[in-house]
Hints:
- This protein is about 10% helix and about 45% strand.
- It has about 150 residues and is mainly beta.
- It has two domains: about 5-55, SH3 type barrels (Roll), CATH 2.30.30; about 75-145, SH3 type barrels.
- Strands 1, 2, 3, 4, 5, 6, 7, 8, 9, 10 and 11 form an eleven-stranded antiparallel beta sheet that branches.
- A hairpin with a 2-residue loop joins strand 6 (about 75) and strand 7 (about 80-85).
- The longest helix has 13 residues, at about 135-145.
- It starts with a strand and ends with a helix.
- The model has no long low-confidence stretch (mean pLDDT about 90).
Amino acid sequence: MAESLRVVVRYADGRTLKGTTQDFRPASPRFHLIPADGAPVVDVRVAELKAVFFVRNFAGSSERTKLRGFLAAPPETSQGKKVAVLFRDGELLCGYTLTFSPDRAGFFMFTADAASNNLRIYVVTAAAAEVKAGPAAEDLAQRALKKR
């Protein structure tokens, strides 16, 4: 039996769903979400998404201050090289990836903030305005943070 993974699904149009999945595969165009609120199973089309957040829990920590950018993080770790994602809606994610390639439909990343509720994130490349890896990731993060 497949493991149930807690996910927060963020659609490109702003909708958010929380639940579990047992059949998410990066190469698959869809997967099933069992909503946390007990609603019927949802057939999720990856092409409609911004990202899939694999989380520790659904509540997160509202009192915790989210770290922005890389905060003097190393250029490369065991989780890969630096990557910054600026989504079309203005959200910025900073972290590390082993799998980014601009010609792929998506990629996994780990956040730069080790204390984050996110275990890993699957980014849908089409939902991003910009994705930069390596040294250019720091530049993108600094530029995006200055605009805020």
